[in-house]
Specification:
about 220 residues, Rossmann fold, 6 helices, globular
C-alpha cells in the first residue's frame, strides 16, 4: 500500500537533494510550538505529527489510511496535513505508521511534536530512523520538538543542522547543550519568558545567536 507513493515526485523534482534537520527544545508553554508555527507558516508542503492538537493551519486527519489518501491525491502539488493520533490507539503504533509513510514522500517538511514520547535517547522507530539518516535523498526537512535535551534520540542530534532551545534548568540538559554550543549554552539558564514573548538560543553551523518568539503574532526576531 505504501510502495505506490514512491512512484510519485512533486513540482520540484529537479531540485538538488538536500535537507535540514532542526531540533527544538523547551518546557511546555515556553515557545516551541509558536517557533515552529513561525518557521512553517509559508511552507506549501508540510506534514505535522500534532500530538498535543496545537496546529490549525492545514487539513486535520486522524488515521494513517487518510494520510496515505491525501498524499496520493496531492503528491504532485501542495499539501499541509496535520496528523492527530487517535488517543484510543497506542501512540507508538500510530507513530510507527506515520513515520514510515512520511519516509515515502519527497521534497517537503515534517514536524514531529513531542519526539521524546515516541523515541528514547538510544532507540528510534524505524521510520524515524530512515528519515533522520536518509532523508537527505528524499529532500525531507525535519523539525523535531522535545521538552528535555537529554531525552532526544542521539541519532537525531548527531545529524542535526540546527538546535534551538528555550529556557532550560536541569544540569543534564545544560551539559548536553554546552556540548554543542560551548559556553554560550550556559546562557540557556537566563533566557526570559513573559506573557508576550520567550527568548531562545539558536545554534547552527557552529554559530549561536539569541532570538525571541512573540506569542501574539507568532513572529521571530533576533538580537
Amino acid at each position: 500500500m505504501l510502495a505506490s507513493l514512491d512512484a510519485h515526485d512533486d513540482l520540484h523534482s529537479g531540485m538538488k537533494r538536500e535537507n535540514k534537520i532542526t531540533v527544538i527544545l523547551g518546557k511546555k508553554g515556553y515557545g516551541k510550538t509558536s517557533y515552529t508555527v513561525a518557521q512553517t507558516r509559508e511552507l506549501k508542503r508540510l506534514i505535522i505529527f500534532d500530538y498535543n492538537r496545537e496546529y490549525e493551519a492545514g487539513k486535520v486527519i486522524t488515521h494513517p489510511k487518510e494520510l496515505i489518501a491525501q498524499l496520493r491525491l496531492n503528491m504532485d502539488s501542495f499539501f499541509r496535513l496535520i496528523f492527530r493520533p487517535d488517543p484510543n490507539i497506542d501512540i507508538d503504533l500510530h507513530f510507527d505508521f506515520f513515520s514510515t509513510i512520511c519516509f515515502k514522500v519527497q521534497n517537503y517538511t515534517v514536524v514531529f511534536e513531542e519526539i521524546d514520547l515516541v523515541s528514547k535517547a538510544g532507540v528510534m522507530p524505524l521510520g524515524l530512523k530512515q528519515i533522520i539518516n536518509y532523508g537527505r535523498h528524499q529532500a525531507i526537512n525535519v523539525l523535531a520538538l522535545s521538552r528535555r535535551a537529554h531525552m532526544v534520540p542521539r541519532d537525531l542530534t548527531a545529524n542535526a543542522d540546527a538546535i534551538v532551545t528555550f529556557n532550560q534548568q536541569e544540569p543534564r540538559d545544560i551539559k548536553y547543550l554546552t556540548d554543542y554550543m560551548g559556553q554560550a549554552g550556559e546562557k540557556v539558564r537566563d533566557l526570559k519568558k513573559t506573557d508576550t514573548f520567550s527568548e531562545f538560543l539558536e545554534w547552527e553551523n557552529g554559530q549561536v545567536r539569541m532570538g525571541k518568539i512573540n506569542f501574539v503574532d507568532k513572529r521571530i526576531s533576533y538580537n
